[in-house]
User: Fold this.
Amino acid sequence: MLSENTPTSLQNLSERDKAVIWHPFTQMQTAPLPIPIVRANGSVLYDADGREYLDMVASWWVNLHGHAHPYIAQRVSEQLQVLEHVIFAGFTHQPAVELAERLLALLPANQSKVFYSDNGSTAVEVALKMAFQYWHNLGAPRYKVIALEGAYHGDTFGAMAVSGRSAFTAPFMPFLFDVEYLPTPIAGQEDAVLDQAKKLFTNEVAAFIVEPLVQGSGGMVMYEPGVLNDLFSLARQHGTLVIADEVMTGFGRTGKLFASDHLREKPDLMCLSKGLTGGTMALGVTTCTQVIYDAFLSGDKSKTLFHGHSFTANPIACTTALASMDLLLSAETQASIQRISESHAAFVQRLRTYSTVDNIRQLGTLLAFDLTAGGQTSYFNSIRDQAYTFLLDRGVLMRPLGNVLYMMPPYCTTDEQLQYAYAQVEKLLASL
Ligand SMILES: *Cc1c(COP(=O)(O)O)cnc(C)c1O
Assistant:
């Protein structure tokens, strides 16, 4: 409720935050005070001083249809009156069943069961546990995993273990299980990576996990479907289970509903989160083939998948996902995805004229390029802070990954907003 204290308490929010809160991925000693956001609408965030920010990172890659979307709000408020939560062992409910049915209808045809969790990291944990226990249940245990260098699969221990090794994982090295890495098969490297893969894939490899076509946190590194098809078939020849971590690439980001839709070979397991609820609620999904599911069926209880979370398949979260799916599949949103993809493609031509830009890449609504002025390419590069602040000062929220600048706009972003963001990026490039 508003009171005469409200304006002051909002102004003080940053200071109050600093007194009690520890933020993610933030060096609390040197980070500037966080910006208090009081409301948001479409692609725009509004801070306590009334300043506007264009959310060109879709609030950490989750937002598809814009903030505070009225249709999602209405569906959530209806669901809240009916059923807010129920234990998901021994019980079920309409939103969970309907969401599973609708997801399976959209995913590659070999996906046949849906397991719910809370976020991208847990979706990956579940996929890994399914893969390891699949082999265990068959009585033919396999313990090896192959992943790609520079991969990011989340921050919990299993997800960290299959991610690339970096400063993020260094303190935990002794606790991370061994993983064999293949270099990312970027353009020009395909044959070399396939040669290496032929040696790495054996009948001892339990699972091969990848972010299909785009490695997100690793710097929006992109590679072609052809080589991924070849890697998937190589894995298959040895019975290795293929896990597609589509936590970032899912729900239209790559121009198709899923990155796997660009592929001929299909994964055995898929991980979804981020855009799943349109960015409104935390929800994760792991899907698998019938063959994997069947390996857990037994009169012997020890073959059960002993995994679950308190809020598994929360009805509110499932409802936001259903509402988001209605919006995503609408002709309007599909046209917007196309419109943003074309707009990015035109901007790519403009970017090519800047000497401070290198390695421009685009897939669907994802646009990324390297800033070359800094000379180095570390996540801790100072050009990162310079670019972040420059754009934020001009009302554009972009969070460079080291020297990699990228755009991942919500699909409701207007042409005018896109052009404004591009223009600020060009000012940055001219200033470097
Ligand atoms: C963000 C991300 C995750 C982790 O998801 P969280 O919800 O942040 O735990 C996993 N995999 C990929 C590809 C991601 O981009």
User: Anything to note?
Assistant: DSSP finds 14 helices and 16 strands in the chain. The chain has two domains: 17-68+332-431, 71-329. Residues 1-5 have pLDDT under 50 and may be disordered. Residues 119-121, 124, 152-154, 211, 216-217, 245, 247-248, 273 surround pyridoxal-5'-phosphate (CB under 6 Å).
